[in-house]
Structure formats: C-alpha cells, structure tokens
Write a structure and sequence with these properties.
The chain is α/β, with parallel strands linked by helices. The protein has a nine-stranded mixed beta sheet, with helices on both faces. The longest helix has 17 residues.
C-alpha cells in the first residue's frame, strides 16, 4: 500500500476540517461519544478553533511546543487539534505527573504553553517556578476564566499550512525512564500510519465506533482511538476515569463499540473477571493488542470467553504506530503477525546482514512513518535511525510464512 501525501499537510485539516467539509452531513456525524453527551465533528472543530485562538493570544507561534496534560475527553481532542491548527507542536504527558517530572518536561521541551485540567493544575503551577522565560502561559481547563475565554473566542480559524515533514507531535517511549527522550514525529508520519494500519489493517469505516483501554497521551491510543476513526468519519469513545475491567465492560455496554483498542494486561484482567462469561461483547468486531507480548494461551482464553478476534501487533514511537500485525481472518496465536502493507521489515545481525527465516535477530523497519529523530539525543538518533531504516532494539524471528515472533529487547 502506497500513501501519496500532499507536500502541504496539517493533520488537523486532514483529520478534522476535511470531515466537516464533506458532503452528506459529514460535519454533523458523531465524532466523540462521552458520558457528557455526543460531540459532532462540527462541535469538535469549533472547540479546537477556540483553543487555537487562546494559544495564539498566549503568544504561541508555529513550531513551538505546547504541553497537553488533560484527561480523555472533548477538551483533550480540541486542545490537540487547536495546537496543530496554529502550527505548534503537541507534547502529550500524563496529567498525573509529579512536580519533579513536570520540571524536567518544562526544561526539556521549552514549551511555550501548557494546557492542564484544574484538578492537576497545582503540580504544574508549582513546577513553573523552575521554568524558564519560554513558558508564557498555563491554561487551566475547567476554570471559569478559561471557560469564559473559550466561549468568547471565535469558532472559526484558518489552519496553518504545515509541511508534511514539519514536527507535529512528540511521542514519548513506552519504557519508563527518569528523563525520557521524545521521538519527534511529523504530520506525514501520522497520516501514513493512519492509512496503512488504521484503514488498511483494521478496515475502519464511518460506521465504526472505537474505544481504547490506554489513554490518549499514549501514541497507541492517539492513533487508534482518535486519528484512525477521524480519518473515515467514525466515532471515538472517551472516558476520563482509570481503565479497569469493570469500567471497560461498562463502557462497552453503554457505547457498543465495534473496535476495542486493548493491551495484554487488560486482556488478562477481562478474561479473569468473575463475571466475564456474562459480558456482551457482540458489538465488537475486532480488538487490538500492543505494548507487550500477548501469549498464545491468553489469546485463546480471550477467544473462548468473548468470541472476538484479537489482533496482536508491534509498533514503536520511532515509526509512529503499529507496523507488524496479525490481520482479521489470518491470526496466528503467539506471533505479532505479518508486516503491515506500506512497511518493509528485515531481521538482521549486528552487522546489518539479513538473517534467514527462523533465526533471531534485530528488527529493522522502513516506511513513510519514520520519525525525524530523538530530541536532544543525537547518539540515540544515530543508533536508531540509519538512513531510511529504523532499528528499534527489538529482537524478532520470522517464519517461512512471513509471521514474526517477538523475542525481547536487545540487551
């Protein structure tokens, strides 16, 4: 699958503005399903434009970073698209960060503005004492002053004409470190992953409803539970509370999603729940799994319990999203599947030589979702990004049928 993208590409326009411009009432389709109600694409666009005006008035300029530390909900989505609309770069962080971690991100990102919910604001305000002059404003979402400012802002805003290779979002690695180094991903990378995996593998259409276990500040969820459904006019389900088996079951009962974005830890919790056999997952046509290995035994338990196809796959921040995946009707339990069309994956030794099927080696991948590099870590960038290839540090084995098995990380 080849993704032809225009040179001028801002994913806010590509994913959101384009849906509103579509005929057949595209702007009035449900975009977000929440406990507070349904938000159409037109609703989301208007709120995103208002956030864009707030950021512009705060002095945010194209290419500057904006930290988003919000719970899952319409404000997160609007803040993200509003940031992109003014040409700025999104840095998504866990809103529950400790003060010391926030201080690190202030210094590391040199963010111009922060968008944070009022419940998490005290820690971000306390950390601002150590921030430099680059931090111009902390916008506290949920405070009456911010609400009034949003209501008074215009619902229309021209989207900045970004280049497809401009930085769009910083993705933080899945592994936990004291001072994580972000991968800088472009507008084009997200569009490519959306077409190749979201549309090509998951087969999303405007009839789908997605629901995710991981939160939106995770790149896995940003793609699967926002960008992918928005690309086809589908609806995404959002909830701010922590994901537990009980919560996920309740949201499935209420919103009847067709695509469940999952992780192995929650897969285990759901199948082990005492009421698992009584749960109705008949609306779900497919579930995905990523982030850690999915044992074949756990896959079989899931299939026996819920009778829902579960697609295990492998992605990386350096390639934006999933690039190896099992596919509907062709799952091989215990593997991470085959290469997603649009990507090229090789198994190589320490010298970069291709290995034969059945041998364990380093994963090399190339495709149009390759990141720009690691921010402020040239050594890591040079080690991971080798020309058009990304060397993830994952060890894999490919069989004669093209299925890959995950074999851990390079030590």
């Amino acid at each position: 699958m080849s993704t032809e993208l225009p040179e001028r590409l801002n994913i806010a326009a590509w994913l959101l503005d384009a849906r509103v411009r579509e005929g057949r009432g595209g702007g009035d389709r449900p975009a977000l399903l929440t406990d507070q109600g349904t938000f159409t694409y037109r609703d989301v666009q208007a709120l995103a434009n208002r956030f864009g005006h707030l950021l512009a008035r705060a002095g945010v300029e194209p290419e500057q970073r904006v930290i988003i530390a919000l719970p899952d909900g319409p404000e997160f989505v609007a803040a993200l698209f509003g940031t992109l609309k003014v040409g700025a770069v999104v840095v998504m962080v866990n809103p529950q960060l400790a003060v010391e971690a926030i201080e690190y991100f202030y210094a590391y990102t040199r963010a111009t503005a922060v968008l944070v919910h009022r419940h998490a604001a005290p820690a971000f305000q306390a950390a601002s004492r150590a921030a430099g002059p680059h931090l111009k404003q902390i916008v506290v979402v949920g405070e009456s002053s911010t609400t009034r400012a949003l209501e008074g802002a215009a619902p229309d805003l021209d989207t900045f004409p970004s280049h497809k290779d401009d930085a769009a979002i910083w993705l933080l690695p899945g592994e936990s470190t004291a001072e994580p180094k972000a991968v800088v991903q472009s507008h084009g990378s997200f569009a490519n992953a959306t077409v190749c995996y979201g549309q090509g593998v998951l087969g999303l259409t405007h009839r789908d409803i997605t629901l995710a276990v991981p939160k939106l500040f995770s790149g896995y969820a940003t793609g699967s539970n926002l960008f992918f459904p928005f690309s086809v006019g589908a609806a995404a389900t959002l909830f701010p509370e922590r994901s537990t088996a009980e919560t996920v079951f309740a949201k499935i009962r209420k919103f009847r999603p067709t695509v469940l974005v999952n992780v192995p830890t929650m897969v285990s919790q759901m199948v082990s729940h005492p009421d698992a056999a009584q749960q109705d997952l008949s609306s779900v046509r497919v579930a995905t799994s990523a982030g850690e290995a999915l044992p074949a035994e756990l896959y079989e338990r899931w299939k026996r319990t819920f009778e829902v196809e579960l697609l295990d796959g492998l992605g990386a921040a350096g390639m934006c999203h999933v690039f190896i995946s099992n596919q509907p009707g062709a799952v091989r339990p215990g593997t991470i599947g085959k290469v997603v069309p649009g990507f090229d994956v090789r198994v190589r030794d320490s010298l970069g030589h291709d290995l034969a099927d059945g041998e364990v080696g380093m994963l090399w991948v190339r495709g149009n979702s390759r990141a720009i590099g690691y921010w402020h870590d040239m050594d890591k960038t040079k080690a991971a990004f080798r020309g058009e290839w990304y060397v993830s540090g994952d060890m894999v084995r490919r069989d004669a049928d093209g299925y890959f098995t995950y074999c851990g990380r390079l030590q």
